[in-house]
């Protein structure tokens, strides 16, 4: 796939602007769906705008100025634009795929912000955007977790760079380990051999780095003989399901599950139970990586043909992603099992969720953008009377919690497993 | 008298100033500098006349009603010679279509004449509140007079659709659907009904002409929306001490799209509406006081729909009752059915004399439009201002407009001829109080216009540009509005 | 980067702040993207990008921007949500005034109206209005369009029009920045009385600057309006069913949606008059069957697979050639029952029937009419719409209108091998308006990608204008821009008056829209009466198509 291959789709954009708005908003205040357009305001920052920029760049009508590069990379690749575009245009445009190719082209042309290219260099060298490879498993010291490189395990955990290197997150990781042990799960980790999934490198546009990281991990998974790949980070979960197929990497030997799904299974099987928790009103935020971006991607290499005289259709049927098959229910079911938890829904939920803006290096490169998107979510939580905003993604939680601190928000931001920590119990 | 030097048109009936003054309803001693009266009989003559007026720099004041008080028609005119353009001789109902509920009429058609023709098509006219029998239908609509059917009032141009115009420049122009065919007969034969007010293309001059008080163009015919006559209808007259109670019913009528005609009246206004003469007005006034009749009244007429009419009445009445039964209102129509019957008779059959002149011989009025949410406050402010007036009865008429988006507030001071001068000051005070508090004088007659344009000075140069486009020589009704 | 001198950019920055001005290529080209059928061309980037995009945040800033444009004799055009290329500038190097920072919305439920700014979308307005038992008119572009733009500047019709009118008629008071940069409030807001009426004092001035079609940016910038809302008997938040993008709206309590069908348009017309006069049906809309098919499917491939295997539901085939989608709305159960009874009686008396539709189909049809959401799917099947006539005249003209559209399109273009999308019925979208008249536009889908298809569309559009000139069946609404000079003479020369308006209020010709009258008539318009006779004669048509092919071929990169 390349930008050239996307020309047909780019030319299908009729600049309707649905990529900027929720399918049908419940209020004016929370009608936006695109964090970058919401903040920069120029159409160029929207998916439709990026499609036009990509088209112009490809056809050498638009130069890659520093501002254009910033506009492209200030996007957190949440995929909301694509889901919304499909409200009307089906698979005609698929702006997200064009944006991926645009970034790949810019990366090839050396037009990536330095912060991001440095992150990718680090990914290539250390397997993580920040931190050293030999420190990746420091969090697991003394926990006596099986080494999946040496022993076979039923369940292989992928920790993810965000949590592995953030001491603040280690309690959560240890809690998850404790739960797995309580439920008598045969699990292991790859210690310092675990690398980033490759999703970040792919989304920034560095295909070869992404390919290398993904291949390494796919090989390791294969070798481990695990039956289940348990992703703790939402970003890795999304990469396994949505990016790996784009890279032709197969994880077919394992079930890929996110911790929310897996623990819901354990609860259903009676291997764990949830007790009482009084937290006040809780709203769950659908992280894009756990939600619409975790929908399994099915590659398609066909062509568009003209039928019925003029209408363009794919020459063979293809599976089109609409964002419906993200991991939306498991986190909610988990929360609903807690006695006394008063849950309330945000206005924008599930595939219509507003991204917190923290992913794909945006937090590191354009912190004000990440903060702005997170502040919008905090306002949304306040508007529905939530006291706690829960995320199933530690990355989203960290971004939103920092934003809440900066704005002295009345809303507390919690990581889902942190919230469950003193509620979850062993056995039925 | 026509001066020897005055150029007389040859192509149209033209009569002298004495006859013109008679037409205007003023005495021969009146100081109006009227030079004569021209009576065109068709559109071609209108156009020739306007071109003639341009050529000879003659001022024309178009008037459409065949007779009656020309209160608004003459208000604000410059103290300069003019010729009356009497459009009342053009009085054909050209066409009516019962299925599409639309008709085409000329300016001289009055409500009784119009209704007589419409009845053959199971239609009736959409009327303002109690027009006099000699009032031109078209003149009412061209002045944006509110009608009593607010739910059928989609836009301020209603019930007018297309116009056939002669601009002040002498050029002809047809608006909306009327522009599609040059030949009206051919249009009608082909099934075209001139139902569209706006257009053609980038124009919407029906809207521009409305409210222009005859300063921009002269209408030769127009298409008019009418009401299909319901097979069943039932009127109600509700009374309440507080007007806000009735306003809450009005909101319900607008939201649920119930009712055909509805409007609100104060007690004095109801008496004026029912009075046959001044004695009767005094009697009613006294009787209302003796019977401790409520201060405010809502008339609403529930009309059946075309299909399953009986059943349509049932749910409409039930819906209305579901609200009314919860409010502190008196059903006057039950207590005093004769008042309802008399009011309905007057609503359907215009009287010779304008109802506002019946109680005391003449009246002073001030009206503006506002919002339903503001009208009660405006009523209150007006009542306070007028509280000390002696020997003058004050009535209020509140007419919801544009499906409840607007409300026309009409305040009448019923008095004798002798009191007219002494009430001039209070009239302008009232204008100011209303305008200061959310009343909008969209139809500013005579001296009201000074206040109205002072409040929006920025629009004045733009309106003057409009005048320059349509009536560059300024021959139509100079002095009115800001012209 | 544009060639705009730095001191001019600085002047704009001084008005709106440096973050709100850009002359970057990637920004300005986003305002030059081919959208719909506005500028027929095979190109997508049209080569007439603005010199800069400027984003004012208030009316005063808009006026400031326009004054800078006047100072430096720069053309400009307002841009609201920017649906399609009608929002693009007319001339390369203009200033695109992007109004996205102006998104005020205030509902006044007691007066059944709202006050909005340019970037308030219809979706936002309707969602807020529902909370007060009200709804707004939503044009075919759907919930993402700007109601202010549609009310002030561009057409304004939509499928719910029987209940919600036309946005030009829904507009109340308005705020206008003239082409010379003066702020003018028209109607009640001009006297600080509120935003509830656009007329007065005296004449309805807005009729000078907002005609039937709208000036489409050719007469300054509109910054705030009062807009009328309509009764809504449904819930405060619309309920949705089905997975995205097959989401539909289950008819709320006391609502019902049906697809009605008749054997011929004569019977259907009789029924339509009865429905109109009974007022039992709030929304009466007809999407042509192919468009229904696109509403019900998520992709073109899905539509095509169903079509070629004969599995499209009946409502998306010629089995539904003559019919309406109707939605009734009631405040009480009794009214609902009456609506049902009336509808059944009308059907019985006119040989009509309710088609069998699934719940999903019903919900999608309901969503289409209540929110106009899926009307825009029309653009999925073809991006170069041919649009012919709009009517707003007697319902009794419907049979003749349908026949006319079939005649205009000819018997080949929409059959297999034709140059427009293959369909089995005409492509009339029709709906009732204000319980009075009806609207229709004929939208055969095609594609912009090939010259031969654009040529067929242009030929069809002009042919339908010409046939409507010979025997009008209502207004040919999409006559605009330079076409005003071609078709104006038969309409009593509105082009002459429009030109006076343009030259009076925009003396420097800076308000830059190709969709409004130009200060001077194009030379071609003088030759048009003869050219029309030659090129639209059966013998002349091939020559005309050849000329068009050559003309559009210049743009064709293929």
Automatic annotation (TrEMBL), chain A:
Coiled coil: none annotated. One of its GO terms (cellular component) is plasma membrane. Residues 10-88 form the 4Fe-4S ferredoxin-type domain. Residues 325-400 form the Cysteine-rich domain. It comes from the Bacteria. GO terms for molecular function: oxidoreductase activity. Pfam families: CCG, Fer4_8. PANTHER family: HETERODISULFIDE REDUCTASE RELATED PROTEIN (PTHR43255:SF2), IRON-SULFUR-BINDING OXIDOREDUCTASE FADF-RELATED-RELATED (PTHR43255). This is Fe-S oxidoreductase.
UniProtKB/TrEMBL annotation, chain B:
Residues 30-229 form the FAD-binding PCMH-type domain. It is an enzyme of class 1 (oxidoreductase). One of its GO terms (molecular function) is D-lactate dehydrogenase (cytochrome) activity. SUPFAM superfamilies: FAD-binding/transporter-associated domain-like, FAD-linked oxidases, C-terminal domain. GO terms for biological process: lactate catabolic process. Signal peptide: none annotated. InterPro entries: FAD-bd_oxidored_4_C, FAD-bd_PCMH, FAD-bd_PCMH-like_sf, FAD-bd_PCMH_sub1, FAD-bd_PCMH_sub2, FAD-linked_Oxase-like_C, Oxid_FAD_bind_N. Belongs to the FAD-binding oxidoreductase/transferase type 4 family. This is D-lactate dehydrogenase (cytochrome). It comes from Marinomonas aquiplantarum.
From TrEMBL, chain C:
PROSITE patterns: FAD_PCMH. The keyword Flavoprotein applies. Keywords: FAD, Flavoprotein. One of its GO terms (biological process) is lactate catabolic process. InterPro entries: FAD-bd_PCMH, FAD-bd_PCMH-like_sf, FAD-bd_PCMH_sub1, FAD-bd_PCMH_sub2, Oxid_FAD_bind_N. Residues 46-232 form the FAD-binding PCMH-type domain. Gene3D superfamilies: 3.30.465.10, Uridine Diphospho-n-acetylenolpyruvylglucosamine Reductase, domain 2 (3.30.43.10). It holds the Pfam family FAD_binding_4. This is Glycolate oxidase. One of its GO terms (molecular function) is D-lactate dehydrogenase (NAD+) activity.
